[in-house]
Structure formats: structure tokens, C-alpha cells
């Protein structure tokens, strides 16, 4: 399964986790002064404009490094792909910069190198995304390259053939990965037949990719009236709008617009799924259920509640399963929210001998979110972790660009950037308990286990009848 988490975000989270580890390992002195008052949150000014063709443009002028970051988001990601060829749009996105009507892949690579640029493209559940950056002095050239790859990709036959060969090799690797197997099975348990359950390539999708099929898919998805362009960096807003008009003003919408993805289920009958992995010495456990989209009022309270449950080093899951029981080195939980749905999920990888005991601990911890109110220390720590990661991450220019694009895709206004931390700080103990009752009851969670059936079958029996998952 794909994730939107960037390497920089992972590095930042790791740094914060290590800082939390150091704090946990070395008791703080007594009688420390109280936290100072929260300072006003800096909110960047976002200049907004909609071109006559319907393209939405957000520009954030920003002092600092002489660099410009660009994000183009087009609605219609893997959730819009046909069930018979899941994630075919991922193949299309991978090939956007492998040749256009006027440039070869080498031409594009050399042009990016000349302007100190980088470029990536991919798909999420709800959008196709291009991310690029370059030195601010070459903003015009950067936007020209992004426009060319987005609007005029040629999908050369030799590049498509190479991409297909690489993708088929990648499928073999991921099929052998227990984490990927567990996530695929959980997607099925949480979303059933909804398109969110099929966001990864399979062999049928790869074989269906051809220059003609990818061109047709591109033409159906890429429409200015269903797209957002974000520009962040050392650039004047009016100058940026002028460049955008030059490069994207001639983009026209053709054909019928893609239908919106139907809402994903917010509840699902809990399932018990086993993915056999003969000879495995550990069990990969996934424990969770569907939840809400990013624009739901529960989004922020549920984010804080999940942080208390398993979203930080001092979370209940980590302290119990790692620190107290020693069952797993890095257990965690997360709440993921997209445009039309979301999910909560705990991930715990343990040795075979404690598979059943770990499931018992998870049930206790999940039910405890409703029965055991968050302490003042837990609530304050969760809010500061949520706010701190958010603020630090969005100091990174590229991350800020992506955050704004993701907001638009998820149906959130750009003003959410300035209100997120303030709203998180308003979450109360009562709200956390309410989230516990609503989303964390153990009886409502699906359980997925990847492991050796012979080694763990007896331990699974108390938790229901497990069905072998066959994708």
C-alpha cells in the first residue's frame, strides 16, 4: 500500500521519537517551571486565483532559500481506476517525465539538472500528483517543464516496456513482504469492495499498460477544472500567476469529467483474516477499522486520541507492548484520512510465541481509550507532539507545498493550515474518551495476522475464526 509520508517527515518523526526516548530514559528534574503560554502560530499568506480554464492556483511567497517548490494535484487517483486494472494510474504517473511531444526523458533530466531541480510523480487514492523544485532564478523553466510533462506526455513505447518490466519485478518483491501482505489484507477488511481497498498494482494492471492505454487514461484524468497548482518559495505572487498563465492557460478540459468517488464505509463488520506464511518466526498483526474522511469534525479529536493510543513514544501501546511486555520493538497506531474515508490501524510485529498475548493487550488498550480517561500529562503531551510535528514539518518548504495540495485534494480549505494546531489544543479529555467509544472499541476492530498458521493457530482461537485471505 502506498503512503504519502516523505523521507523528510520520517526523519523528523524519528528524531522526535529519539528525543522522547531520551526523555523517558532520563527522568526530568523535579519542580520544573510550567510551560510558557503558546505563541501565535505563523500563518503564511496564500494568494489564490482561478484561471479561466478552471485551474486553481495557490501561491505562497516565502523568504529563505532561493528555491521554488511546485505541486500539481489532479483529482482522480487509484480510487478512480477500474477494478480489473487497479492502480493503472500509478503506471501512467511514473511515466509522465519519461518523454513528451517535444522532449525525451534525457532532455527532461538534463533540463532539471541545469536548473538545480528535482521531479517526482505518483498517485494517491484520490489524486495524481507531481512534485518539483528548482532554484528560484529558474522558476520560469521549472513551470515550463512541469506543464510539458503534465499536459503533453508521449509515453514512448521503449519507456513503457521498461517501466512494465521493472513493475513486474517490483510485484515479486512486494508479494514476499509480510508488511505489504498485511496492509493489503487490512485494506480489504476495512473497505471491502470500495476502491480504497485496491490501491496497489497487480499483474493485470501492468500488462494492461501500453502507450495507447496510458494516453487515454491521461487524457481522461488531466483536466484543469479538477486540478490545483501550488507554488511556494522566493517568488512574487503576481509574477507566479503570470508564469502560470503562460504555461497552463492554454490547458483545456475535454470530454466528460470523472465522477466523484463514492464515500467509503465508516463502519464494517469486523473480520478475522490470516495470511499464511509458512516457516515465519514472527506474526505481523494489523488491528483496526474504517473511520472518517479528513473533512469530518472528528478528524482532529481522533488524531489526538490516536496519538495517546499509539502515535508517539510515550503512547499507551508503546509503553505497554514494548516497554512493559517486551513483545515488539516498534508497535504503533495511526489514523489515516483521505477525501472520502479513513481508517485507524495498529501495527505490531511479534515473535510467534506471544501472538495471542499481544492480541489480548491490544483489546485491553483499545477498550481502555473509553474506560480510562487520558491524564493531564497524556493529553498535554499528545497535543504538543501533534502540534510540534505539524509545525516543524511545515517549516520545510517542500512539505508545506505538499500539505497545501493534500488539503485541497481532501476537501479542506487553505485556512486549515493556520487553524490545525489551535484546534488540536482545544481537544478535551471528554472528546478523547468519546473517540474511544466511537472508534476504538475492541469488538469493532478487524484483525489481520500474517504468519505461520501451524505455530499460531491455537493462540488465535480465542479471537474468533480466522479465514485465509486470498486476494
Automatic annotation (TrEMBL):
Peptidase M16 N-terminal domain span: 66-199
Keywords: Signal
Pfam families assigned to the protein according to its UniProt record, in alphabetical order: Peptidase_M16 (PF00675), Peptidase_M16_C (PF05193)
Signal peptide limits: 1-24
Gene3D superfamilies to which the protein is assigned, alphabetical: Metalloenzyme, LuxS/M16 peptidase-like
UniProt GO molecular function: metal ion binding
Peptidase M16 C-terminal domain residues: 210-384
Record's keyword annotation contains Ribonucleoprotein: no
Classification via InterPro entries: Metalloenz_LuxS/M16, MPP/UQCRC_Complex, Pept_M16_N, Peptidase_M16_C
Protein name: Insulinase family protein
Source organism of this protein record: Rhodanobacter glycinis
Amino acid at each position: 500500500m502506498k503512503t504519502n509520508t516523505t523521507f523528510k517527515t520520517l526523519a523528523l518523526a524519528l528524531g522526535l521519537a529519539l528525543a522522547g526516548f531520551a526523555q523517558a530514559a532520563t527522568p526530568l528534574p523535579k519542580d520544573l517551571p510550567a510551560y510558557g503560554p503558546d505563541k501565535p502560530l505563523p500563518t503564511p499568506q496564500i494568494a489564490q486565483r482561478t484561471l479561466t480554464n478552471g485551474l486553481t492556483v495557490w501561491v505562497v511567497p516565502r523568504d529563505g532559500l532561493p528555491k521554488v517548490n511546485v505541486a500539481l494535484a489532479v483529482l482522480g487517483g487509484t480510487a478512480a481506476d477500474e477494478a480489473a486494472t487497479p492502480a493503472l494510474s500509478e503506471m501512467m504517473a511514473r511515466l509522465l517525465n519519461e518523454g513528451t511531444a517535444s522532449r525525451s526523458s534525457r532532455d527532461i533530466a538534463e533540463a532539471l539538472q541545469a536548473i538545480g531541480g528535482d521531479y517526482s510523480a505518483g498517485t494517491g487514492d484520490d489524486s495524481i500528483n507531481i512534485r518539483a523544485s528548482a532554484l528560484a532564478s529558474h522558476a520560469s523553466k521549472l513551470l515550463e517543464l512541469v506543464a510539458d510533462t503534465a499536459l503533453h506526455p508521449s509515453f514512448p513505447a521503449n519507456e513503457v516496456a521498461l517501466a512494465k518490466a521493472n513493475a513486474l519485478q517490483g510485484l515479486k518483491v512486494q508479494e514476499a513482504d509480510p508488511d505489504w501482505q498485511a496492509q493489503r489484507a487490512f485494506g480489504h477488511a476495512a473497505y471491502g469492495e470500495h476502491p480504497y481497498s485496491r490501491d496497489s498494482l497487480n499483474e493485470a494492471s501492468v500488462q494492461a499498460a501500453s502507450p495507447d492505454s496510458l494516453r487515454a487514461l491521461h487524457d481522461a484524468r488531466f483536466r484543469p477544472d479538477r486540478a490545483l497548482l501550488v507554488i511556494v518559495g522566493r517568488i512574487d505572487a503576481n509574477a507566479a500567476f503570470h508564469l502560470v498563465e503562460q504555461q497552463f492557460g492554454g490547458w483545456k478540459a475535454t470530454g466528460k469529467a470523472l465522477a466523484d468517488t463514492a464515500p467509503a464505509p465508516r463502519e464494517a463488520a469486523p473480520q478475522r483474516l490470516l495470511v499464511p506464511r509458512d516457516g515465519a518466526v514472527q506474526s505481523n498483526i494489523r488491528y483496526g477499522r474504517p473511520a472518517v474522511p479528513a473533512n469530518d469534525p472528528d478528524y482532529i479529536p481522533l488524531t489526538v486520541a490516536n496519538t495517546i493510543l499509539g502515535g508517539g513514544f510515550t503512547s499507551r501501546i508503546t509503553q505497554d507492548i514494548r516497554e512493559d511486555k517486551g513483545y515488539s520493538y516498534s508497535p504503533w497506531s495511526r489514523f489515516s484520512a483521505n477525501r472520502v474515508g479513513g481508517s485507524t490501524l495498529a501495527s505490531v510485529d511479534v515473535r510467534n510465541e506471544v501472538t495471542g498475548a499481544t492480541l489480548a493487550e491490544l483489546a485491553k488498550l483499545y477498550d481502555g481509550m473509553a474506560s480510562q480517561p487520558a491524564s493531564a500529562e497524556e493529553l498535554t503531551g499528545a497535543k504538543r507532539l501533534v502540534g510540534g510535528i505539524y509545525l516543524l514539518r511545515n517549516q520545510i518548504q517542500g512539505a508545506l507545498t505538499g500539505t497545501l495540495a493534500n488539503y485541497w485534494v481532501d476537501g479542506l480549505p487553505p485556512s486549515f493550515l493556520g487553524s490545525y494546531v489551535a484546534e488540536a489544543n482545544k481537544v478535551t479529555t471528554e472528546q478523547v474518551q468519546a473517540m474511544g467509544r466511537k472508534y476504538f472499541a475492541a469488538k469493532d476492530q478487524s484483525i489481520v495476522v500474517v504468519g505461520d498458521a501451524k505455530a499460531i493457530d491455537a493462540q488465535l482461537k480465542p479471537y474468533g475464526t480466522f479465514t485465509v485471505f486470498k486476494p
